[in-house]
Amino acid sequence: MRHCKKRYKLGRNSSHRRCLFANMLKSLVVSGRIETTLTKAKALRPLADRLITLAKSGSIAARRKVAARLMLRYNRLSPKESRMARGGDLSVYNNDRHVLNVLFSDLGARFVSRNGGYTRVLKMGRRVGDCSDLCVLEYLPG
Questions:
Q1: CA dist., res. 136 & res. 2, Å (int)
Q2: Other C-beta atoms within 10 Å of 114: how many?
Q3: What is the C-alpha to C-alpha distance for residues 138 and 125, in angstroms, rounded to an integer?
Q4: Distance (Å, rounded) from C-alpha 138 to C-alpha 124?
């Protein structure tokens, strides 16, 4: 029997689905809104809300859980790049550090007084090629 097996599989295997959600969540955190299909947005919405819940706590354990969920990788810097970073040039890092900073400083502080429902899905219509439902998934203003 298939009890408690409700999940959006999206025609992908589990590792592909996990990478897809991680990339979409990174884009959502950085830009605040993404355009995607309705099915992907419905699958992504609970994950995005859980990220905000973790960001509101702000602990080291929460940072580690978010880094694991988003599959964040910190690139090792060469000696020249580390000198540049110490000098203030942060462009040598990949964008993963920026994702954590935006999530824990901006979004976590924005939703402190809210108890849930941090995202919304706005339907846009249908895509021309395959007629799938398009929508915008975005964080609420605060």
A1: 31
A2: 12
A3: 16
A4: 13
CA separation (Å) from 18 to 4, 12, 117?
Answer: 19, 9, 22
Over residues 4-43, the pLDDT tens digits come to 888 888 888 989 999 999 999 999 999 999 999 999 999 9
Distance separating alpha carbons of residues 71 and 26, to the nearest angstrom: 9
For residues 37 and 134, the answer to whether their CB atoms sit within 8 Å is yes
Q: How many CB atoms lie within 10 A of CB 112?
A: 10
Contact (Cβ atoms closer than 8 angstroms) between residue 103 and residue 113: no
Estimate to the nearest angstrom the gap between the alpha carbon of 106 and the chain centroid.
Answer: 14
